[in-house]
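Readers of this paper often ask what the protein records in our data store actually look like. The remainder of this section carries one protein's record, kept here as part of the documentation.

:::
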Amino acid sequence: MPTKRIFAAAALAGALLTSLPLFAEPLAATSPSSSAAAPNLMGQLAVFSPAAMLAQSAAPAAKTPASKSAGWSDDDDMDSGMPDAGVDKGAVASLANDTSDLRKTLIGLAMQLRDIRYVRGGRDPSTGFDCSGFVRYVFAHAVGLELPTNSASQFLAGLKVNRGDMKPGDLVFFRTAGKRGQGRISHVGIYIANGQFIHSPSHGKTVRVDSLDESYWAQRFAGAKRPGALARS
C-alpha cells in the first residue's frame, strides 16, 4: 500500500513539472504590441494622478493683459474736441493768502510735475502719468493720503463740494467718454483757483493747467469732491 502511494505521488509530481512551461510561457513572453502599449497607458494614467491635479489647481491663473489690470485702463477715454493746449503758464491763477499750508503743499507739488508726459496707466514721474495716477501721486507724496486707483473710484471716495465752494486741492471730475456729459466718470484733475485745474490730459499731451470755463471741460464737468484729508483745511 505505501509503495502504491509513492508511485502515485511521483506520477503527480512529474505531470506538474511537465505542464509548468505551458503556464510559465505566456507570463514570460510578451508581444511587441503589448510592450509598446504599456508606456502609453502609464502616460495616460499619470495625467489623472491626484498629485498632478492638486499641483495644477494650486498654480496661479494666467494674468490678464496689463491694459486691463487694477482698473487703470478705465481712465482717460477722451472723445474728440479736447484742446491741444491749456492755460498759458503766465496766466496760471495764484493761491489766496488764506489757503492752508496743506493745500499749498498739494498745489506746489502738482505744479512741479508740469510737462511730464501722459502715459496710460502711468503712476510715477519717471515714466509718466495718466489722470488718476497723477492725482494719486500728488496726494501720496504731499500729504501721505492713498487715493483709490482710478477716477471713478476717486469720485466715490470724496466728499461732495459745490462748484462755488471749491478750494485748492479739491478734485474735479469729468465725463469724457461717450456722449458729452453723459458717460461714466473717466477723468480727474486737481483744482487750483480761479476756475483752473491741473491734470494729465491724454495721449500725446503733458501735465498742464486748464480752465473749467473752456467749453470742452465745461460741457463734461461732473462735479467736485474733497478727499478726507482736506476736509478741515
